[in-house]
Amino acid sequence: MSVEVPSRRGDAAPTARVNRARQLLRGPRPEAVPVLVGRACALVGVLDIAAGVFPRFRHSRMHAIAEVLPGALGPFAAALSLSTGVLLLLLAHGLKRGKRRAWRAAVALLPAGAVAQFTYRHSLVGVLISLALLAPLLLHRDQFDALPDPRSRWRALANFVLMSAGSLILGLLIVSVHAERIIGDPSLADRITHVIYGLFGFEGPVDYQGNTSWTVAFSLGALGLLTAVTTIYLAFRPEHPAARLTEEDETRLRALLERHGHRDSLGHFALRRDKAVVFSPSGKAAVTYRVVSGVMLASGDPIGDVEAWPGAIEQFMDEAKAHSWTPAVMGCSETGGEVWTRETGLDALELGDEAVVDVKDFSLAGRAMRNVRQMVKRIERAGYETRVRRVRDLGEAELDRIRRAADDWRGTDTERGFSMALGRVGDPADGDCLIATAHKQDDHPGEYGDLKAILHFVPWGTDGASLDLMRRDRSADPGMNELLIVAALQAAPKLGIERVSLNFAMFRAALARGEKIGAGPVLRAWRGLLVFLSRWFQIESLYKFNAKFRPRWEPRFVVYRASADLPRIGFAAMQAEGFVNLALPLPRFLRRRGPAGRRPCAHGTTAERNVRAA
């Protein structure tokens, strides 16, 4: 559906003001100085590490350059070069993003390196190089003002694990590159033991000729000290927890959805409580988001009055700029994509299509619905019955049973969902949600009695519903999802529902066109790749499952700043949806709990709404 969207008030302002506003809204494009300084620090860090690890490097032509860089400092050159290189590499990414804390650390590190160069080596060239890196940091300090990212104490533990692993690898290199000076033929186990001892400052079982033992010992000790210092710093620095929806935010969002929720089938998913929100200055529109790996990821269209969308988008872009986050939007509609690209200068790319079924047009009659009709009849003859009800019409005992069953039947250890998942079932505030359940009486009922499958729908305005999750008992007959979708569509008129959004089919157009006669070699190759990837991401299976119900297809888009950001955005989206989990594994009793002390209820994602029926 295409809607004419008015621009923000003030379009009649002078051209300079409009251009200034558009430049501000373009988001956190990296400035030249932070990027160049970050790259310079990364290059210097790599050279310093190479000078500290490889003895041959210290006699190469490159070392003529490296020896005057920060870290190459007299008798302790190897250890100091190694530790300085690691620190500069750690700071490089933060400097490129204009982070204030990275700037402070670099401003402290580079003068210390300059003093050390002059004290130990009397090297004016080394001092000049350190000052040359320091000068743009001081001259352009206003470009290094990005606020911190969300973080917690767990990052200290992650740093300890990663730094320990890196130190072990570098330590093995340091121990092994001096092969001509090793006494005897120590085994790999002896070398690992020597590295571990050296990281703690003790002498290991590997012996060297001459002063090489001191070089190796100082280098390993520097790595161990660096691991300890960075871990302690991360453990004791202030936390910046990720933003969450407050009760006030949720109340305001629900009020906006009550008036404007019919516009977007993904609107109700904005009420996920692990998202943050920014509102337009008028309070008539909002954008919800989550920050993942430095990407400020929004989903769906802005919530609220379409005329106020530009104000909410401006607030979103200002927040991204303040933290130097990469802005991105997943799954917005065509109208939403037009507003995002027009107001921010971002680009849009079609991501796939959403399957929407108009209830009045749905029927099991006809040849096209033969397979679905036969499957539903077969399951009904097997003794299954269905019930479709509002959440508010279920008792607490039955809701609790459904919650526990949905959690147990999830099929993965990781909670999944972001753009098309609510993240909870049966919350008192979600009384308008629909639950479709399948039941069958057994001689030996399990933990959940006769409950065999669950579908959960969230409201889409007052006359629509959007599929949230699909769960079924693995011992139930195939076809539970088809059975419950048909039951929900048939019960929809009694519940005042005229349209139902099913799943999102990624790259549906390519799959559909690529299998038609006359498709070109490029399109066929693209379809072949998607079919191959479907082994892991269920791209083709979701498309074919959705197509069974003869829906109309609504395109959905990803909005991004630059093509170079797409891999990062894709990785962040996979993290948000739960397909990539970088968090450290925790025992079940230590996992984060919901606001009321419960574990978050199980929920599904677009890719998890699959069909395991044959």
Structure description:
- It is built from 19 helices and twelve strands.
- Strands 1, 2, 3, 4, 5, 6, 7, 8, 9, 10, 11 and 12 form a twelve-stranded mixed beta sheet that branches.
- 45% of the residues lie in helices and 14% in strands.
- Strand 1 (276-279) and strand 2 form a beta hairpin.
- Residues 6-30, 60-75 and 586-614 have low confidence and may be disordered.
- By secondary structure, the protein is an alpha+beta fold.
- Helix 4 (77-96) runs antiparallel to helix 5 (100-121) and helix 4 (77-96) runs parallel beside helix 9 (212-236).
- It is elongated.
- The longest helix is centred in the middle third of the chain and has 25 residues, at 212-236.
Defining key terms:
twelve-stranded mixed sheet; 614 residues; alpha+beta; disordered C terminus; 19 helices; elongated; 45% helix
Summarize the structure.
The protein contains 19 helices and twelve strands. It has 614 residues and is α+β, with helices and mostly antiparallel strands.
Write the layout of secondary structure elements.
Blueprint: H1 15-25, H2 32-53, H3 61-66, H4 77-96, H5 100-121, H6 124-139, H7 154-176, H8 188-199, H9 212-236, H10 247-260, E1 276-279, E2 285-292, E3 295-299, E4 303-304, H11 309-323, E5 326-332, H12 334-344, E6 347-358, H13 370-381, E7 385-390, H14 396-408, E8 434-439, E9 451-459, E10 464-472, H15 480-491, E11 499-506, H16 508-514, H17 521-537, H18 539-547, E12 552-560, H19 566-577
Parallel strand pairs: 3-5, 10-11
Antiparallel strand pairs: 1-2, 2-3, 2-4, 5-12, 6-11, 6-12, 7-8, 8-9, 9-10
Helix pairs in contact: 2-4, 4-5, 4-9, 5-6, 7-8, 7-9, 11-12, 13-15, 16-17
